[in-house]
Amino acid sequence: MAQEIELKLQIAKKDIQTFLGLDCLKKGSQTSYILKNTYYDTQDALLASHKIALRVRQQDKRFIQTLKTQGENQGGLHVRAEFEFDVKSDQLDLSLINKELLQYLPINSVDELDLKGLFCTDFHRTQIMLKNIEVVFDQGHVTYQELSDEICEIELELKNQSISNQSGIAQIFELAIEISGQISVMPSDVSKARRGERLKCLSHAEKYRIKKPTIDTNNLQQNIVNCMEYIQTNWESYCFSRQISYLADAILFIDKLHELLLNSNEMKKYSSKITQIKQSWSLLLDRKELDDNTLADKTDELFDKIQQDKTIGQTWLSLSQVCHQGASQQGASYE
Fold this sequence. Notes:
CATH topology of the largest domain: Hypothetical Protein Pfu-838710-001
CATH superfamily of the largest domain: Hypothetical Protein Pfu-838710-001
Structural class: alpha+beta
Distance between the termini: 13 Å
């Protein structure tokens, strides 16, 4: 078993070459290759409902079966257990799901699972190895039947197991914030597996459901983290589908986040930045005075402008960094 600690960032196509040429990445060794993946689940999405991903990946002639557990997902940072096995082909090998792995699954026996290959991801990966962190840029598609979703994202993953996870997380955020000062990025809580599940919902004319966070009056910091995750996921779902309900939910919870930040001495300084993000996103809702054709053109123009605003990603990353620092000081463990 390995522990995966990574931060995912969304990036616009126009910024790809700028990103790959950043000075902070030039000291690393760079390689690139094609990855093909098939994700498995039951027809009623039992694994996805527990935020578990099971896939078989092909890299050249090598096949790797991977189980990713639910773990923690805060502000774009994913911390979870990961099990990898070499397999002979692109077919799932259920015999590898032993007693150790079963404890992470919502079943008592593999026989209870009727698994099918539901969706695929195919993408080109550029890998840059720095001292402690692996930086990858993935570009390609998630596909479910005839539907597809574009992949254009950065992942920063801790690879040096000789340093503490807390130190590694701090270095990941420092690098991410440095990158966000050069190009527009947005932390992402939506994995490639969740993208596939979102496509599946779309194919059945169903809305992709995002669970609203519970607000616990006794845990201010966790409330902030939960609100941020909900806002991020809704914003990404709006970017993908342009369904206004996702944007409306994101904006609604920005108000809740703003209120929570004002109650935190350490994080209240970000409240004005959060208000600016709300004002920016709210412009996308206020287009009723335009005719249909003008509405589409103006909305696309405004959306592109918002996507290019570096301050949004910078604010989100800085706030996420403070949340993780606070969790560390309160004794939370990522070990």
